[in-house]
Amino acid sequence: MTETIIIGRVLTSETPQSTRLENVALLVDTDGTIQERIPQGTARYDVLSARRDAVWLPDETLLTPGLTDLHIHAPQWPQAGMALDRPLEDWLGTYTFPLEASYADPAFAEDVYDDLVRTLLENGTTTALYFATIHEEASLVLARTCLRYGQRGFVGLVAMDHPDLCPPDYRQASAREALDATRRFIGAVRALPGNEHGLVQPVITPRFIPACSDALLEGLGELAAELNVRVQTHASESDWEHQHVLNRTGQTDTHALDHFGLLRDHTVLAHAGFLDQTDRALVRNRNAALAHCPISNAFFAGAALPVRDVLDEHVHCGLGTDISGGYSPSIFENARQAVLTSRLLESGTNPHLPASERGLPKSRIDFQEAFWLATRGGAEALGVSAGQLMPGQMFDAVEILGTSGALRLHPKDDAATCAQKIVCHASSQTIGRVWVNGRQIKEKASHPC
Ligand code: GUN
Ligand code: FE
Questions:
Q1: Could you say which DSSP state residue 23 is in?
Q2: Handedness of CA 162, 166, 168, 170 (dihedral sign)
Q3: 161, 209, 236, 237: residue to mutate for ligand 1 pocket, most atoms within 8 A of CB
Q4: 234 Cα: distance to centroid of ligand 1 (angstroms)
Q5: Contact in structure between 151 and 408 (CB atoms under 8 Å)
Q6: Exposure of 214 by Cβ count < 10 A (0-12 exposed, 13-18 middle, 19+ buried)?
Q7: 158-173: per-residue pLDDT in tens?
Q8: C-beta neighbour count of 275 within 10 angstroms
Q9: 284 with 180, same domain?
Q10: Count of domains in the chain?
Q11: Domain hosting residue 53, numbered range
C-alpha cells in the first residue's frame, strides 16, 4: 500500500457537544494512520492538493469517521425484525437459542455472515463488536469474514453453561468445556492467516449472568486477565434479567461482574438501562463501557437508558444495533432512535398525566451527541484508535453522499447542521466509499469491493 491523500470536507467530533467541519487534505500513511490533517488555505494544503495521486471528494459529499456497532449478534441476522412482540426470556428460549443452535453447521454460518458483514459495510460500520455462537468453527467463519472484507471485527465465542436457562442442545456441557473452548478460540483468532496486524480480535463473551454458572464466570475472569482479552456481556437489560441477577447473587450485574473479574479495561456491557449511579461509577472506574441499544431497549428493556446521565458522568458509551433484539443493521438509525428515546424519556409519554409529572427532566441528548456516540464514543469504548479523523488515528472513514433528497448538504451548512442532517437521513443509500485502516474496502456502488 502507498500513502494516500484525501481532500474534501470532513466532519468529526471533538467532544460530544462539539463537532468540527473543515475542508482539509488528509495524508494517510502506508500503515493506515492519519499523518497530517492540513486545512484549506495553507501552503501545505496547496502542495498536497497539487499531487496527481490525490483523491478528491466530490462537492456535496462529506467524510465522517467510520461507525462502530458496539453490540451485535451476528447469528441472529436471519431473524432481524421477527418475534419482537415476545418478552426477552421467551424470545431467547423459543426463537433465539434454536436459531443459534443451527450454526453447528459452518456452511450456514458462511452464508449468513457473508451477507451480514457486507450489509454492515454498506451501512458504514467499520468496527463491530460481535457475539457469535457457542460453535468454534462457525465463530471462526465470522472472524475470517471480517478479515476477508477488511472490517475491524471483535468476535466473541459465546460462553453459556447454565442448565436452568440454556437448552441441552445449545450450551457448553460444563464450565470446563466452555473455558477450554474460549481459550482455543482466542488462540485461533490471533493466529488466523492475514490477521498479523490484529484487525480481528477475540473477545471473552459470557452471554449474561443468568446463562453462566459461577465457575464459568470466575474462570472467564481469570482467562481475561491471563490472556489480556476484552470482555463483552449483557447487563441489567430488563426487569426480569436485573431481578434474576439480584436474586441469585445479591448484587447488581455490574457488581457481580466485577466480583468475577469481568469488569475490566474496555469491557462492554450491553443495554445497562437499570444501572444506577453507583453501578455507572464502577463502570467508569474500571474503564469499561456501555453499549446503548435504543431500538432493542424499546422492545425488551421496559425502560430507556438514561444516556444523558451516562454522558454527563463521563462513562464510556457507544451505540449497538443488538441485531436481532433491534431490527436495523444501521448505526445511523440507532443514533436517531437514541435522540428520540431520550426526548420521550424527558417528556414522558402518558398524556393522562400533567406535563410536569410526565417525564424525567433533562434527559435529552442532541444530534451532535448522537453523532459522537456513533463514531468516537464507540471507538473509545473499545480503545480503538479511530472514530476521529485526526492525526495519529487510524483512517477509518465513511463517505456521505449529500447530493440529493433530504440529505442534500449545502456549502453553507455548519457542523451542527451537517451532524443533524446525517443522523436524521443517512442510510446505506447515502453511503459511498468506506475505508478501514487506510484501505478502501467499499466502492460507491452498493457492494463492498
Ligand atoms: N440476553 C442474553 N442473550 C441475549 C440476546 O441474544 N439478545 C438480547 N437482547 N439480550 C440477551
Ligand atoms: Fe444483545
A1: E
A2: negative
A3: 237
A4: 7
A5: no
A6: middle
A7: 999 999 999 999 999 9
A8: 25
A9: yes
A10: 2
A11: 4-65+388-442
293 touches 270 (CB < 8 A): yes
User: What are the backbone dihedrals phi and psi of residue 12, each rounded to the nearest 5 degrees, phi first?
Assistant: -145, 145
The angle subtended at Cα 433 by Cα 192 and Cα 76, nearest 5°, is 55
Atom of ligand 1 nearest to the CA of 73: 6
pLDDT lower than 50: segments of the chain: none
Q: What is the DSSP letter of 74?
A: G
Other beta carbons within 10 angstroms of residue 278's beta carbon come to 10
- Closest among 62, 113, 157, 122 to 329, alpha carbons compared: 122
The phi and psi torsions of 137 (rounded to 5 degrees) equal: -65, -45
> Is residue 197 assigned to a domain?
yes
Residue 49 C-alpha cell reads as 492538493
- What torsion do the CA atoms of 301, 307, 308, 309 make, to the nearest 10 degrees? 90
Query: Within this chain, do residues 304 and 371 fall inside the same structural domain, yes or no?
Result: yes
Verify that 46 and 77 share a domain, yes or no: no
**Cβ-based burial of 86 (10 A; exposed 0-12, middle 13-18, buried ≥19):** middle
What DSSP character marks residue 112?
A: H
What is the average pLDDT value for the chain, to the nearest integer? 96
- The percentage of the chain sitting over the pLDDT mark of 90, rounded to a whole number, equals 96
Query: pLDDT at position 446, please?
Result: 56
Q: Give bridge partners of residue 63 from the DSSP assignment.
A: 10, 399
Task: In whole angstroms, give the CA distance from residue 384 to residue 224.
Answer: 18
| Minimal-distance CA residue to ligand 1 atom 11 | 234
Asked whether residue 199 falls in the same domain as residue 335, the answer is yes
316-319 and 67-73 beta bridge pairing: unpaired
Reported ipTM: the value is 0.99
By residue count, the chain amounts to 449
CATH classification of the domain holding 221? 3.20.20.140
Which candidate, 319, 109, 96, places its Cα nearest to that of 207?
96
Q: Which ligand is nearest to the CA of 209?
A: 1
**Whole-number Å distance between alpha carbons of 418 and 430:** 14
CB pairs under 8 A, 24+ apart, for 189-193? Answer: 189/140, 189/143, 189/155, 192/140, 192/143, 192/144, 192/147
Is 325 touching ligand 1 by the criterion CB < 6 Å? yes
pTM attached to this predicted model: 0.98
- On whether the CB atoms of residues 146 and 194 are closer than 8 A, the answer is no
Crossing angle (nearest 10°) for helices 415-425 and 331-347: 100
Chain centroid, CA 94 distance in Å: 26
Q: Which residue has the cell 417528556?
A: 347
Q: How far, in Å, from the CA of 334 to the mean position of ligand 1?
A: 17
Nearest to 288 by CA among 314, 266, 320, 255: 266
